[in-house]
Amino acid sequence: MSLGSSDLDPTAYAAGSVKVSAMVASGEIDVMICDLENAAKYLAKYSPVKGIPGALINAQNLGLQGDIAVEQQNYAKAVKFYEQAVKEYEKRLSRCCKLELLELPEQRLGDEPSEAEIRQALKKEAALVEQKLPKGGALIAMCIEGQEISSVALSEKMQQFAARGASQLTFLIGSSFGLDEDLKKKADLRLSMSPMTFPHHLARVMLLEQIYRAYQIEAGTKYHK
């Protein structure tokens, strides 16, 4: 696992009425049990209105404001937890490299943007990114269509970039709709952590951990097993 109990205090919370429990032994083994009966009751509240597939639910009329408020509170707690994890890996990486983490604003779009609106937003975001890209470095874009490689392979790739004379490695995580196509074409490597979808803040933690792990693999420490 990426974060052991020795790294950060574990955080547990319930999403809606879904019972989620975790048993942790020495930070090594997790057994997570989801109560499907409770989950079914929770999801039933969000079933299509009047049997119309895909119908939008009026949260106010269905009395779901409380659930939405709880989800918002859970999200805020999760973000704080992820931010603590980022600080931990920034501290660890300070012993391996000079790390600079830049946060650029994403373009705000409506709930149902058109393809044209998304492309335009990604173009604007790409322009901001390109202003920050260092010269003489290698660009690694995180995108769903990228390669899925092992931690050892990532370590080897990073070593190869350094051997070829790259002065910096820039890892790029896109906004809600990903990265601009032209920007991805400029990448020296496209990587995907998984075909699954993760919150942006969690993806940041996962990537930082993998970068730290890559350096530990190269150094030959016992961190990677």
Major sheet, described briefly?
A: 3 strands, parallel
Instruction: Report the β-strand fraction as a percent range.
Output: 5-15%
The overall pLDDT average reads: 80
Walk across the major sheet and give the strand order.
Answer: 4-3-5
Helix share of residues?
Answer: 40-55%
Helix count, DSSP H or I runs of 4 or more residues: 6
Count the beta strands. Answer: 5
Q: Return residue spans where pLDDT drops below 50 for at least 5 consecutive residues.
A: 1-26, 49-61
Distance between the termini: 11 Å
What is the H-and-E element order? EEHHHEHEHEH
- The structure class reads alpha/beta
Bulk shape: globular
Rg, please? 21 Å
Question: In words, what does this structure look like?
Answer:
This protein has a three-stranded parallel β-sheet with strand order 4-3-5. The chain has a two-stranded antiparallel sheet with strand order 1-2. The longest helix has 29 residues, at about 65-95. The chain has helices at about 35-45, 65-95, 115-130, 150-165, 180-185, 200-220; strands at about 20-25, 30-35, 140-145, 170-175, 190. It contains six helices and five strands.
Provide tags for this entry:
single chain, 225 residues, alpha/beta, three-stranded parallel sheet, two-stranded antiparallel sheet, 13% strand, globular
Summarize the topology.
Elements: E1 20-25, E2 29-34, H1 36-44, H2 65-93, H3 115-132, E3 138-147, H4 151-163, E4 169-173, H5 181-185, E5 189-191, H6 200-219
Parallel strand pairs: 3-4, 3-5
Antiparallel strand pairs: 1-2
Helix pairs in contact: 2-6, 4-6
